[in-house]
Write a structure and sequence with these properties.
This protein is of the alpha/beta class and about 325 residues long. The protein folds into 2 domains: about 140 residues, Quinone Oxidoreductase, Chain A, domain 1 (Alpha-Beta Complex); about 150 residues, Rossmann fold (3-Layer(aba) Sandwich). Helix content is about 25%, strand content about 25%. Helix 8 links the parallel strand 12 and strand 13. Helix 3 packs across helix 4, helix 3 crosses helix 9 and helix 6 packs across helix 7.
Length: about 325
């Protein structure tokens, strides 16, 4: 059996994860039982949510146990099989974790030619793509002509939310860190206005959003939280909708309460959490529409691929430093 390397959790991080929280373990892949197949994992999706799974706290998925492989969505090729539905040579998406090989009993077969690059499946077929599509359309319910405000706008989820909002005929305003990302919001993703949050106080953010959205915000797609969430709330319109998709500014610290929730009362507005795992039945429709838009050239996907399992931690930390340029992916083969 092939030799496997896997990235495991050995200590629960306190604040920002560090080297001593993880171990790179080398061992032989186990033999297969009937109904199992062995996958050579080629690419792993790196997601901010993985930070939450490292904590021993109740969540939508159980905590990663100490000693276990870091949980991650993966795509790879079946290299040995005792499962009729997953033949050798097939590309498959599984929850393979940050490991070069994984033994699986179930997964989703993928057509590597369905999108321009096989990695695009991690942007469109699962994870960030369906999150952007379903979070915006099913929860935010934007109407043509309305204004959509997106935080984390240059990232995997945010870059797609802005583009989908434009396809729906909305005005899109993005918030991101730094002039280079803000230029990409306009030039690459078609946002109507971009706001650089770095170095701005909450009051300055409130003013910047007001200048970009003089008629107010109808849908706030929140990926960040903290002062950015609070500044957006101060610009909500009557019957506004806030899609709470992520709070990345708080994943490595104790969560700070939002101070401006009273704006929801003032405007008869709604805030609703979104978690993709509660919308599984809608994912195929979302993925099919996103795939069509990508292949028609209407939707741009940017992926940031770092290479090698030994680089798993620095690649993951890019999500919190803001040094990822697009959907963060780790190449494992
Ligand atoms: N609810 C769901 O089902 C679901 C599914 C997938 C993702 N999400 C959430 O969606 C959000 C985006 O995820 P993603 O995978 O697409 O990552 P991403 O946006 O590609 O990368 C994370 C970005 O967050 C920004 N960021 C990090 N720390 C920040 C801070 N302290 N303040 C402000 N911005 C900060 C950085 O952009 P800047 O350079 O602009 O700061 C960074 O590039 C996350 O909150 C994630 O948890 C939710």
């Amino acid at each position: 059996m092939p030799i496997n390397r896997s990235f495991t959790l050995v200590r629960r991080p306190s604040g920002m994860p560090e080297d001593a929280d993880f171990a790179l373990v080398t061992d032989e892949t186990p033999g297969l039982s009937e109904g199992q197949f062995l996958v050579r994992n080629h690419y792993a999706s790196l997601d901010p949510a993985m930070r939450g799974w490292m904590d021993d706290k109740p969540s939508y998925m159980p905590p990663i146990r100490l000693g276990d492989v870091i949980r991650a969505s993966t795509i790879g090729v079946v290299v040995q099989s005792r499962h009729a539905d997953f033949p050798e040579g097939a590309w498959v998406a599984t929850l393979g974790g940050i490991a070069e090989y994984s033994v699986q009993q179930t997964g989703r077969l993928i057509d590597p030619a369905a999108l321009p690059l096989v990695t695009n499946y991690l942007s469109v077929g699962t994870g960030v793509g369906p999150t952007a599509y379903l979070g915006l359309l099913d929860i935010g319910k934007p109407r043509a002509g309305e204004t959509v405000l997106v935080s984390g706008a240059a990232g995997g989820v945010g870059s797609l939310v802005g583009q989908i909002a434009k396809i729906q005929g909305c005005r899109a305003i993005g918030i991101a860190g730094g002039p280079e990302k803000c230029a990409r919001l306009i030039d690459d993703y078609g946002y109507d206005a971009a706001i650089d949050y770095r170095g701005k106080s909450e009051q300055e953010l409130v003013s910047a959003i007001r200048a970009a959205a003089p008629d107010g915000v109808d849908v706030q797609f929140e990926n960040v939280g903290g002062a950015i969430l609070d500044a957006g709330l101060m610009n909500l319109n009557a019957k506004g909708r806030v899609v709470l998709c992520g709070l990345i500014s708080q994943y490595n610290s104790d969560p700070a309460p939002s101070r401006n929730l009273w704006q929801l009362i003032v405007h008869g507005a709604r805030i609703e959490g979104f978690i993709l795992t509660q919308h599984i039945a809608r994912i195929p429709q979302a993925a099919a529409q996103l795939t069509q838009w990508v292949n028609e050239g209407r939707l741009r996907i940017d992926e940031h691929i770092e290479e090698g399992i030994e680089n798993a931690l620095p690649a993951f930390l890019r999500l919190f430093a803001g040094t990822n340029h697009g959907k963060m992916i780790l190449k494992l083969s």
